[in-house]
Amino acid sequence: MEIIEKMDNAVKVKDGDKEYWTLADILPNSDKPLEVLIIGKVPAPISVKAGHYYQGNQGQFFWKKLREYGLLNIGKHIYEDNALLENDWGITDVAKEPNEFSDEPTAEEYCEGLQRIKSLIDNHKPRIILFVYKKVLDRLVGRKSVYGFNPGLDGEFGASKVFVFPMKGTPCKKELQLKAMDELKKEVELIRNNKFVTVSYTHLTL
Q1: How does DSSP assign 105-133, residue by residue?
Q2: pTM, 2 dp
Q3: In which order are the strands placed within the sheet that holds 2-7?
């Protein structure tokens, strides 16, 4: 896949015989570890047109919850995805050719996407991989997941903990949504606190 044009986080790519606009992965240039790697299904046309991830109704709900729980500090940025790297977060998709949410990637795209995601995890070693949609994770691992953290999938994606976002419009009940987000907040705070302690300790011993 070759990038031939760029506008914000949208890129025009040449993919075999096809050319199309999509959203580029947002990842560190180096193998710097990530706190969280967000995994979506495919870029939505509305988001590609805007040049930024998750500009539809569900996507805006996703960003809103991350801000509400203090998980993503967007600073002076207008678009949340522009703040991801500053928060040591990254984002990718299972497949990159845009389509509407109701159109599922093919089995081949899921298989290729899984291998690419595992390669990204090997490189960036995210402490948490956050699946925006439960059905995407279910398809990738071939079994049912749960909203929130999935300890039953420990080891499936390296050392990363697996979290399924409690998206609105899904069977996830309000109580479970609150519980899942509280657990995510605690885990991210723990990661950040440990990072601070490590940096402080290193500074004191130099």
Answers
A1: PPHHHHHHHHHHHHHHHHHH--SEEEES-
A2: 0.92
A3: 2-7, 10-15, 18-23
